[in-house]
Amino acid sequence: KNVIHFGSIPANWKPFKIAVNGHYSYIVDCAFLEPRRSDYEEHNEKPSSLHVVDINEVANPKLISSLILNGKGWDIAVNNGFAYAATSNGLLTVDIHKPTAPEIVNTFSTPTHATKVFVRDSFIYLVDSTKSLRILHLKNPAKPVQIYNKVISGESHTTGFMEMDSEYAYISGSRIGLNIFDLSDPVNPEKVCYID
């Protein structure tokens, strides 16, 4: 089937990750290195931003707000009025009840970059670049609380990747192979398979 282009917005930033919820899309852009003014000056990395786009009229989307994140953004998930951004400084909770004025309300720090985030039911599933699986409870959606942490690899030089289906989490990365976790009990997930 042919793909039909409906609309676009002008942007001086590079989209990296996107989540759609209702009439809005939430886009995390790429952090980038500012040009050095001399050979002796270190690169200064600008942080990523979260951009909220009104897509109620698909043919005429509108950028309605932007919020600077604390560090490099790696992933974004949206649930019940909050956006959860995996960044180089951990998991940021952003209140998006008012899409024109998003606000960071909490930071859950991780020892290395948080790289992938999923939300299911009342839980957040988070992977960082040590390839740790963390599960946080959303009893208070504005302040997720960690209830589980499993370190799969202590090395932090590469990114951890995760995908999920209705029952399992699939976690992979350099030197750790593929690790599959049964999530039927989110408080105590079980590793059921490892492929080198």
- Main sheet specs: 4 strands, antiparallel
Approximately what portion of the residues adopt beta-strand conformation? over 45%
- Assembly type of the chains comes to single chain
Which stretches of 5+ consecutive residues score pLDDT under 50?
none
How many helices? The count is: 0
Structural class: mainly beta
Widest beta sheet: strand line-up: 1-2-5-6
Shape: globular
Topology order in helix (H) and strand (E) letters: EEEEEEEEEEEEEEEEEE
Q: Give the rounded overall mean pLDDT.
A: 86
**How many β-strand stretches?**
18
Estimated radius of gyration:
18 Å
Topology:
Elements: E1 15-21, E2 24-29, E3 32-34, E4 44-46, E5 49-54, E6 62-68, E7 73-79, E8 82-87, E9 90-95, E10 103-108, E11 114-120, E12 123-128, E13 132-137, E14 145-151, E15 161-164, E16 168-173, E17 177-182, E18 190-195
Antiparallel strand pairs: 1-2, 2-5, 3-4, 5-6, 7-8, 8-9, 9-10, 11-12, 12-13, 13-14, 15-16, 16-17, 17-18
What does this structure look like?
By secondary structure, the protein is mainly β. Helix content is 0%, strand content 54%. The model has no long low-confidence stretch (mean pLDDT 86). The relative contact order is 0.11. It has a four-stranded antiparallel sheet with strand order 1-2-5-6, with no helix packed on it. Strands 7-8-9-10 form a four-stranded antiparallel sheet, with no helix packed on it. The protein has a four-stranded antiparallel sheet with strand order 11-12-13-14, with no helix packed on it. The chain contains no helices and 18 strands. The radius of gyration is 18 Å and the shape is globular.
